[in-house]
Amino acid sequence: MRIVVVGKGGREHALIRSLSESPVETEIFCFPGSDAISELATTVEAEGLQGLIDWMKSNSIDLCMAGEESYLLKDEGLANLCARNGIPCWGPPKEAALLEGSKEFAKQFMERHAIPTGKARVVESAEEAREVIGGSYPTVLKFDGLAAGKGVAVCPDEKSAEDFLDEVFGRKRFGDGSLLVEECLKGPEVSIFAAVSGRQAVVFTPARDYKLIGEGDTGANTGGMGAVASRQLLEPDLTARIEEEIIKPTIEGLANDDLGYVGFLYFGLMLTADGPKVIEYNCRFGDPECQAVMPLVSGDLATFCLEGARGSLREELLDFDEGWSVGVILASAGYPASSHSGDVIRGLDTVEGARVYHAGTRRNEEGDWETNGGRVLAVVAPGADRESAVEKAHSEAAKVDFDGSQRRNDIGRLHFD
Ligand code: AMP
Ligand code: GLY
User: Fold this and answer.
1) pLDDT reported for residue 390
2) CA 181 to ligand 1 center in whole angstroms
């Protein structure tokens, strides 16, 4: 099976590793890929989305797998272009990817299908936003379009809200677009992932990521400093409630609205005192949750995704480990305000019994790995129980080092006492 994975980060490294471990014979390609990914997959040399489609057509590609979301929403949309060219695609069409691409679209979808979520109003100006907020804090402000994870502000007070309003409507940091003013929800967060094909869904292992840079959940927001995954993260009653109140109506809603959803769907949930509520949908796997979840998944992921892209999900192709998995991110100096490239990474060869997924690395002229971005890599360890996975992930991550490296010691520990 000839597969192209679209993306270049730690999530794609993890997906490609799992695809390559599928029992079916695979030849894997990646676009745009990275130096680390090129050890498992051949880099596709193509110009832009249309170039990629042309390349896939002339290289008899059996399956295109969307890793990151940007291509799903670009131009005509990766999945739409694949469909027009007869290439099975594991990833949703643009019309459905708006669940991630437009907060307003997602909110209307949830209201239409009675899916629990925070109350929200759409506004077009700073004055309108102030009126809706009505001096009541905390409040949550969300830019309507894709904003590389920077488009959401949880505002405890007027000052923080005014700063964000200035970014959105004053400096137009994210370009033109409207804003959602949303009720601030409280409670622990959990990330749920489903593989979806039409009316069918297979729920993967749930995970929790740690978004802030500092230990104890302090400091600035990041792309994620680590994640913990296990079926045991949620009590069976709560899992059943999430399936009934959130996953089922979402899948039914997507099918009833003729959105033709195919691919991974990520539910960002908050477990509030009133029950689980959706904070956001993403039309892809989470990063770094994917790096923690994938080691728990075995079986034939390649065939599972190909069959899913063709319209039928075959759950029996996959097995899910009942244990735990913990992934610790190492970030470069200055992250998240900035990042530092060119710091040589030491100790990678000494990691044992854990997986290392590269996100922002490259090979230097001497052939050594060095930093090349904010989040550099993830060290992921499994364990029969949480404590052993936590101990192993942290002790193996401690073997890897580079100048200015940042790592949280409480990944998999915080929120479990
Ligand atoms: P993201 O959309 O991934 O940038 O994440 C935004 C983060 O903001 C979420 O992970 C939550 O921690 C927080 N958040 C988003 N919506 C709400 C809400 N309605 N209430 C409280 N926190 C929220
Ligand atoms: N871990 C959060 C995300 O992938 O958006």
Assistant:
1) 98
2) 12
Total domains in the fold of the chain:
2
In a domain, 8, yes or no: yes
Residue bearing the CA closest to ligand 1, atom 4:
149
Do residues 36 and 13 make contact, with C-beta atoms less than 8 angstroms apart?
A: yes
Give the pLDDT confidence of 27-71 residue by residue, as tens digits.
Answer: 999 999 999 999 999 999 999 999 999 999 999 999 999 999 999
Question: Which residue lies with its CA nearest to atom 5 of ligand 2?
Answer: 286
| Nearest Cα residue to atom 4 of ligand 2 | 286
Evaluate the omega torsion of the peptide bond into residue 93 and state whether it is cis, within 30 degrees of 0. Answer: no
CA–CA dist 245, 252 (Å, integer): 11
Structural domain harbouring 165: 119-182
Lining ligand 1 with CB less than 6 A are 118, 140, 149, 152, 154, 182-185, 189, 211, 268, 279-280
CA of 145 to the centre of ligand 1 (A): 15
The residue from 135, 154, 182 where one domain ends is 182
User: Do 75 and 128 have their domain in common?
Assistant: no
- Kindly give the distance from the C-alpha atom of residue 57 to the centroid of ligand 2, in angstroms, as a whole number: 31
Residue 417 has pLDDT above 80, yes or no: no
Cα(393) to centroid of ligand 2, in Å?
A: 20
- Read off the pLDDT of residues 147-169 as tens digits, 9 standing for 90 and up: 777 789 999 999 999 999 999 99
CA 216 – ligand 2 centroid, Å: 19
Smallest Cα–Cα separation from 106: which of 54, 61, 144? 144
Identify the CATH number of the domain in which residue 59 sits. 3.40.50.20
Atom of ligand 2 nearest to the CA of 149: 5
